[in-house]
């Protein structure tokens, strides 16, 4: 009951403070604070002259409010977003502001609002305390820093107000706005606000335009050395060169005369037109390198930061250089089991990154869901790269079965800082160069070590 009351109080206090900061300029907040102080100390007009300061400040604020109400403008705002963003990497986008009035508009600033979902009760209760070792007991008990961190994560980024140049009448200007995404996934733009302060510079008047748009933010990536696991080319039933358009396709090699029983979709119609007799296309099956990138999404009791680092590591491997003719299969489990393939005319790396940008942790599914998916595809894979977020007995048994199937693999385990001590490699004791432990916060240094432990 107390927690729910605190949650409602946080929401009300946050909304009030945001409206106050947006409506009043720093000078306006100073005048407003002076007005409140003068009102408190000027109650007794016989002993103090603070009531005169109160009257003066009240008059100034009254004039500012009256002039704020006179702000009228006809503006059109158009936002030009890039195709993608990347976590923690600043990006700029352009905004076109068009003045539809017959007089110039000056002293304007642009405020871009991202859609912000308030943290739910279950998120607030179960989320870890950020930097709890530096928080006092009161902050840890009340939980406002934790609630604020959740709110900022849900928003996905912060955009500072941008000062605009003078807009001539019946003309437009272009301005650049900088955004630093704080999380992966879709950022939702809610509205664009044009603010203009009154002549005293105390209160802002607003022109609000509902301007919904979305921007896909890709996971953070780290530099990785080229990965060449000792896998061999494997037989791929039907090939994949035409799999994007035909379900069970093969590699085209030549044409031949029609034989009874040949499917109509294999007829080479141009040759048929020239020869006057049915000619069909011949195909052959293919053998090539196919990597399986396995992402562990079963978070259980691990913090969210570990899962986010695992997604970033998987994205880094997806972007690493590999043979041009090789395929990469991304395998993970969420509400269902998923497989996404890139390479050789199918999806490209950007498509894999789009998938990873939206993948979510699974808390109510067993790890066996992922095991079944991997073992069903094991015969088609040349090698596996497994990105894990836990090293319990179930995952060790999963890796042991992969090694028994003679599948070359690289295991990358993401752990919390300081958890690398006395970590048993389990089934990989005899292949320590295939077992890489990365500490959260030191991922980049750990991935670069792959260049020195014989992975290439």
Describe this structure in words.
The protein has 456 residues and is α/β, with parallel strands linked by helices. 31% of the residues lie in helices and 27% in strands. It contains twelve helices and 19 strands. The protein has helices at 2-23, 26-41, 50-68, 121-126, 137-142, 144-155, 269-275, 304-319, 349-358, 368-377, 393-404, 443-448, and strands at 75-80, 84-86, 91-99, 109-114, 157-158, 162-163, 172-181, 185-197, 204-218, 234-236, 251-257, 279-284, 286-288, 290-295, 327-333, 337-342, 383-388, 409-415, 435-439. A six-stranded mixed β-sheet has the order 16-15-14-17-18-19, sandwiched between helices. It has a five-stranded mixed β-sheet with strand order 2-9-8-4-6. Helix 8 (304-319) links the parallel strand 14 and strand 15 (327-333).
Topology of this structure?
Blueprint: H1 2-23, H2 26-41, H3 50-68, E1 75-80, E2 84-86, E3 91-99, E4 109-114, H4 121-126, H5 137-142, H6 144-155, E5 157-158, E6 162-163, E7 172-181, E8 185-197, E9 204-218, E10 234-236, E11 251-257, H7 269-275, E12 279-284, E13 286-288, E14 290-295, H8 304-319, E15 327-333, E16 337-342, H9 349-358, H10 368-377, E17 383-388, H11 393-404, E18 409-415, E19 435-439, H12 443-448
Parallel strand pairs: 2-9, 14-15, 14-17, 17-18, 18-19
Antiparallel strand pairs: 1-3, 3-7, 4-6, 4-8, 5-7, 8-9, 10-13, 11-12, 15-16
Overview features:
456 residues, alpha/beta, 19 strands, flat, disordered C terminus
């Amino acid at each position: 009951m107390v927690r729910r009351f605190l949650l409602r109080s946080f929401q009300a206090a946050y909304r009030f403070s945001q409206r106050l900061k947006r409506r009043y300029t720093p000078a306006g907040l100073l005048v407003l604070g002076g007005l409140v102080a003068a009102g408190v100390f000027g109650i007794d007009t016989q002993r103090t002259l603070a009531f005169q300061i109160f009257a003066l400040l009240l008059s100034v604020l009254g004039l500012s409010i009256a002039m704020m109400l006179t702000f009228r403008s006809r503006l059109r705002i158009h936002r030009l977003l890039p195709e993608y963003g990347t976590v923690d990497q600043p990006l700029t986008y352009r905004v076109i502001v068009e003045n539809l009035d017959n007089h110039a508009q000056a002293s304007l600033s642009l405020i871009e609002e991202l859609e912000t979902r308030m943290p739910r009760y279950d998120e607030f209760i179960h989320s870890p305390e950020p930097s709890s070792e530096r928080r006092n007991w009161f902050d840890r008990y009340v939980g406002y820093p934790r609630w604020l961190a959740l709110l900022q994560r849900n928003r996905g980024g912060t955009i500072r107000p941008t000062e605009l140049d003078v807009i001539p009448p019946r003309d437009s200007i272009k301005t650049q706005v900088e955004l630093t995404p704080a999380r992966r996934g879709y950022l939702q733009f809610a509205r664009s606000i044009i603010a203009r302060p009154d002549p005293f510079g105390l209160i802002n008047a607003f022109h609000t335009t509902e301007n919904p748009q979305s921007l896909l933010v890709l996971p953070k990536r780290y530099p990785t050395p080229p990965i060449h696991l000792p896998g061999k080319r494997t037989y791929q039933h039907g090939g994949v060169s035409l799999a994007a358009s035909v379900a069970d396709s093969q590699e085209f090699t030549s044409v031949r005369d029609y034989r009874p029983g040949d499917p109509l979709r294999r007829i080479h119609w141009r040759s048929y037109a020239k020869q006057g007799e049915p000619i069909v296309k011949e195909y052959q099956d293919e053998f090539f390198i196919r990597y399986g990138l396995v992402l562990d999404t079963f978070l259980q009791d691990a913090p969210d930061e570990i899962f986010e680092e695992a997604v970033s590591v998987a994205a880094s491997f997806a972007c690493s250089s590999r043979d041009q003719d090789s395929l990469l299969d991304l395998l993970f489990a969420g509400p269902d089991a998923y497989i996404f393939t890139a390479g050789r005319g199918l999806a490209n790396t950007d498509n894999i990154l789009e998938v990873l940008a939206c993948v979510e942790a699974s808390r109510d599914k067993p790890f066996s869901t992922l095991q079944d998916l991997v073992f069903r595809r094991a015969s088609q894979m040349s090698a596996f790269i497994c990105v894990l977020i836990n090293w319990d007995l179930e995952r060790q048994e999963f890796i042991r079965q992969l090694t028994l199937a003679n599948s070359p693999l690289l295991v990358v385990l993401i752990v919390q800082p300081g958890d690398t001590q006395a970590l048993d490699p389990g089934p990989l004791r005899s292949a320590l160069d295939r077992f890489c432990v990365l500490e959260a916060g030191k991922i980049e240094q750990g991935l670069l070590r792959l260049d020195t432990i014989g992975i290439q």
